[in-house]
Every structure is written in structure tokens, then in C-alpha cells.
Q: What sequence folds into this?
């Protein structure tokens, strides 16, 4: 008797082959038969008219803290994800000696847009070292298969303390200790090493995140550990410093795959050819035998934000003035003509790689606090300025001040034109992922990138066939990150499965829920057209709600292909 049989589905193998109408049998967490299955089973699912595919593989998440209080890792399982990689950009929580916990949480709250109170009250500290963190994840039993990066900023903070955000050059002993901690993480099963040079990555009080001030020599010394152990991938939020040429050089030095994540690779109407140039440079590197890829977003980069937490604007130097400011002080700063003049100067000459480049038609009023201003909801700041007969920058700050900074704005900054984005999604140098799930919770929820891809890029626009679209969400990212066995629906593979209706699959608009520790709010999305998600043969979501499991079925991944 089988553990599970899913009958009559259109089965997609995740490898790009044509779908077949078949039954799928699952035993002890693995797929044991694809074809006609007449045997009895403890559970039988009628999948007539539905498609069955491997679960979505999400290479870019930030569940490092949330997983310690929420084994479901919501909302990703609801949105079809079965495997997640955490610790991206070098921002995680392990290793972390007890005296540095508050420092680590304060930085994480800003750089990844997380609720500080939720972090301070919610994280369960059953670890100090990276191996102890991996052991805690195994005790927790996550709902998703989970892989963890060793993080540059985390390790730099552990070794250098507060100086990690102040001093570019570590001592020789400090660098040696950092290298030792990277190796310790790799020996404990880290999927690789992650870092950031991004100017968007500021920590608590406007201080730079530690890795962003590190030298290239330090980065090369730490990534060199991957070459020494002969495994692992390197992921970096590169900003403008770690160019494709630099990333290729690092890959050439250590023989390991390198992955670029930066808004510079996204379609940007102000510089429409720049993103494609990055992709072409990476393709040229591949032709030279270097595995250099770009982590690619298939959704518009959108943020819901207020001027109490203006994450999307912090990379402009004018906003250095708000570091640590309370509510009343923020009001004074935003009303000050010199602050506004400084911000205008930033927009007149924006630094590379920042989020907002000054097009006020790309920020709209999302939600107003005063009933009399409800007519402005859905209006761009450019339109608001025209209606009020003033400069857009003044209209932006004046409206927020009128509403005691409670106005919500929605910014759509990059990847916001299908004609510009489609060639990037199809490019051989790209890997479709980049959800940032678990982060920026107050501003956005892109955890459903895979459902968006299936609905928009496959069904609505036809840019991808269903078979190819599924491959790009499953086996392709798993193979690029050297994750063995995942992302394919074949006999013998782990039973990570997504059952869905291709005609209706998608997701809801973002909605705010106050379910974080301490009552904090976050944005989530609900699935559409999803009929079931299984991880290692255990159902974790049925399209309506999570399975109530004392222990999740997800594996803590610690063995990867070379």
C-alpha cells in the first residue's frame, strides 16, 4: 500500500519535457511510480483536470530569524515553494555570540525591513555557532527544505564587533578568524558564502552593513575558502563595485559558481540597456567556462512604505539625517527646506544601484489616513503634484506631514515594463528567483514569484510554455545552486510537489496581517488555483490553509553537488 497516490494529473517533470497524464505514487517521502497506479494507498488525491509539478525552488529568501519561531516559513509553502535558501546577501543570524544578539537584530531590522520588536522578542536563541544553528533548524523541523548561506556581514560582526561597520581593513588575525568561521560553516553544511557591496544595504542608525565597506581583497580571501573545500556557491548583492568582471574573476580563482543580485541588472526605464549589458557580460563569462549567473526577478520591484520607515529612500545621503530620529524629529526633518534641497540634489545626480531614481510617476499614494484625502489613493505623486500645483517632492512630503506620516506609498521602481523584462527572463545568464521572502515585510511580499510567473509570463502573455516555465522555477535553479535531487518530478526523487490549476493559478494582492511576535504586522499574499503542496511526501498546504504538523517534513539541506 502506497503512502500517497495522486491520480489523473497532467504531470510535468520539471525538466522541460512534455506533460503526461499519469498517476504518481509516493512512499517514504519519495516518488516511487509515475504511470498507471491501481494499488491502494493511505491517501488518494483526485487530480483530474489539474497539473502536478515539482515544488518551486526559491534561491533568495531571508527566513533566518522567522524560522526560529515559525516552522511553516509562511507564506512560501502556501505559494508553492518547497525548497528555500536563506542567509542571502550575507545577512543572517548565525554565528551570533549572546552579547551581539541585539546588534545583529537591529541591523537586520533595517537592512531587511523587519519588525525590530518581532526580532527581539521572537527569535529563539538555541545557538551561538553556525553548526549549532543548523542543529536547531533540525530540531525545529521546518515545513520547507532549507539551505543556509554563511554570511559575510554576520561573520564580520562576530569577529570585529561594532568596528565591522566602521573599519574597512581587518587585521591579519581578524581576517584569519573570518576565514576559519567560513570554513566552519561550510563543514557544517552551508550551501556557500553570501555577501553584499550594495549601497542600498544600510544597518541600524544608517550605519553601513559590515560587508559593504569591506575591501575586495577581504572578499577574495573569504570566497577562497569555497575553492579550498571544493564546494559551495557564492552569492552577492553586488552593487556597482562587484561588476560581472569581478564576479567572473572570483569564480575563476575559486572554481565555484557566482551569482549576482543587484537592481543594476533589472529593467530600468532610465537606463534601458544597462540590465541587458550585465546579462550579456555573464553569458560571455559562461562561454569562457565561468559559472556566473544573475538572480532574476519576474515581478515589478514594488515597495509599500511610509515615511516613518522609508527603507526605499535610505540610500540617498539626504536621509542620513533621520538616523535614530523619533516621530516628532522626523516631522521636523521632512518639513525642513534644507533637507528637501539635499534630497533634490540626490535625485538630480543619483548614485548607481539605488532604488528610487526620481521618477515621481513610479510612486503612488497607496493608502491615506485622513478621510478627506481618500481621493488621492491610486494617484501617482506626479499626478498629485499637478492637482496641487506644486513640485512633486513637496507634494510627497506635504501629504505625509498632513497625515502625521501615516500615509502609505507604493513604489514600482524596476522590472515594470513587460517588453523590457521579457528578454531578461529568457536570457541564458538568468536564474528566476529573487523573492526576498521573509524580508521587507512591512513593504512588500514577493514570496509568490513562482505563481506570478505561471500566471503572468506563462498563461497571460505566453512568453513561456508551461513546460519551460516550470523548468525555470524548479530544476534549473536547483541545478544552478548545486542542490541535488530537488526540482524534478521523476521516480526516485524527493516528493516535493505542487498541484495546481493552470487556468486560474496566481496570487492575491498584498494584504497586511498582524501575526508577528509582539503583534507586528507584515504583508502576505494568498494563493489562487493551488490545490496542494507536499514536501518530502507530506502535505503542508491544501490551497486554503496549512497542515497542523508538530514537526515539518522539510530537510535541512547540508549536502550539495560539486
A:
Amino acid at each position: 500500500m502506497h503512502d500517497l497516490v495522486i491520480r489523473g494529473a497532467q504531470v510535468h517533470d520539471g525538466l522541460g519535457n512534455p506533460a503526461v497524464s499519469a498517476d504518481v505514487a509516493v512512499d517514504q517521502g519519495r516518488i516511487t511510480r509515475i504511470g498507471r497506479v491501481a494499488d491502494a494507498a493511505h491517501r488518494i488525491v483526485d487530480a483530474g483536470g489539474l497539473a502536478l509539478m515539482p515544488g518551486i525552488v526559491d534561491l533568495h529568501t531571508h527566513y533566518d530569524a522567522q524560522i526560529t519561531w515559525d516552522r511553516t516559513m509562511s507564506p512560501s509553502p502556501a505559494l508553492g515553494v518547497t525548497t528555500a535558501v536563506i542567509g542571502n546577501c550575507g545577512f543572517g543570524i548565525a554565528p551570533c555570540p549572546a552579547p551581539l544578539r541585539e546588534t545583529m537584530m537591529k541591523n537586520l531590522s533595517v537592512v531587511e525591513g523587519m519588525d525590530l520588536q518581532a526580532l527581539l522578542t521572537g527569535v529563539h536563541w538555541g545557538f551561538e555557532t553556525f553548526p549549532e544553528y543548523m542543529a536547531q533548524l533540525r530540531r525545529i523541523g521546518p515545513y520547507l527544505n532549507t539551505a543556509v548561506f554563511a554570511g559575510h556581514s554576520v561573520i564580520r560582526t562576530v569577529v570585529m564587533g561594532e568596528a565591522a561597520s566602521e573599519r574597512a581593513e581587518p587585521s591579519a588575525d581578524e581576517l584569519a578568524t573570518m576565514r576559519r568561521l567560513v570554513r566552519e560553516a561550510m563543514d557544517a553544511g552551508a550551501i556557500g558564502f553570501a555577501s553584499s557591496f550594495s549601497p542600498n544595504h544600510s544597518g541600524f542608525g544608517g550605519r553601513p552593513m559590515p560587508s559593504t565597506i569591506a575591501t575586495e581583497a577581504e572578499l577574495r580571501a573569504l570566497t577562497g575558502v569555497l575553492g579550498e573545500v571544493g564546494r559551495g556557491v557564492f552569492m552577492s548583492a553586488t552593487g556597482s563595485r562587484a561588476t560581472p568582471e569581478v564576479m567572473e574573476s572570483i569564480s575563476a580563482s575559486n572554481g565555484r559558481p557566482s551569482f549576482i543580485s543587484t537592481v543594476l541588472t533589472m529593467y530600468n526605464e532610465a537606463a534601458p540597456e544597462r540590465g541587458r549589458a550585465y546579462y550579456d557580460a555573464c553569458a560571455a563569462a559562461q562561454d569562457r567556462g565561468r559559472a556566473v549567473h544573475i538572480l532574476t526577478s519576474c515581478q515589478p520591484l514594488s515597495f509599500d512604505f511610509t515615511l516613518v520607515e522609508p527603507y526605499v529612500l535610505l540610500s540617498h545621503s539626504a536621509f542620513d539625517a533621520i538616523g535614530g530620529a523619533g516621530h516628532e524629529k522626523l516631522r521636523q526633518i521632512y518639513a525642513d527646506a534644507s533637507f528637501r534641497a539635499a534630497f533634490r540634489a540626490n535625485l538630480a545626480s543619483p548614485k548607481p544601484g539605488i532604488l528610487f531614481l526620481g521618477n515621481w510617476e513610479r510612486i503612488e499614494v497607496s493608502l491615506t489616513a485622513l478621510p478627506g484625502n481618500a481621493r488621492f489613493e491610486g494617484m501617482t505623486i506626479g499626478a498629485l503634484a499637478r492637482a496641487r500645483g506644486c513640485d512633486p517632492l513637496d507634494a510627497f512630503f506635504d501629504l505625509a506631514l498632513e497625515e502625521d506620516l501615516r500615509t502609505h506609498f507604493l513604489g514600482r521602481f524596476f522590472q515594470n515594463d513587460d517588453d523590457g523584462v521579457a528578454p531578461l527572463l529568457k536570457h541564458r545568464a538568468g536564474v528566476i528567483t529573487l523573492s526576498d521572502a521573509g524580508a521587507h515585510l512591512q513593504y512588500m511580499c514577493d514570496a509568490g514569484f513562482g505563481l506570478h510567473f505561471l500566471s503572468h509570463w506563462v498563461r497571460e502573455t505566453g512568453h513561456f510554455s508551461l513546460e519551460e516555465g516550470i523548468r525555470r522555477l524548479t530544476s534549473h535553479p536547483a541545478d544552478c545552486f548545486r542542490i541535488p535531487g530537488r526540482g524534478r518530478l521523476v521516480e526516485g526523487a524527493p516528493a516535493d510537489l505542487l498541484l495546481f490549476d493552470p487556468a486560474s493559478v496566481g496570487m492575491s494582492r498584498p494584504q497586511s496581517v498582524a501575526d508577528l511576535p509582539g503583534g507586528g504586522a507584515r504583508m502576505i499574499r494568498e494563493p489562487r488555483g493551488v490545490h496542494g503542496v507536499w514536501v518530502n511526501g507530506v502535505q503542508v498546504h491544501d490551497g486554503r490553509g496549512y497542515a497542523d504538523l508538530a514537526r515539518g517534513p522539510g530537510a535541512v539541506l547540508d549536502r550539495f553537488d560539486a
Notes: The mean pLDDT is 95. Residues 172-187 form the longest helix (16 residues). The CA atoms of residues 200 and 436 lie 14 Å apart. Residues 303-414 form one domain.
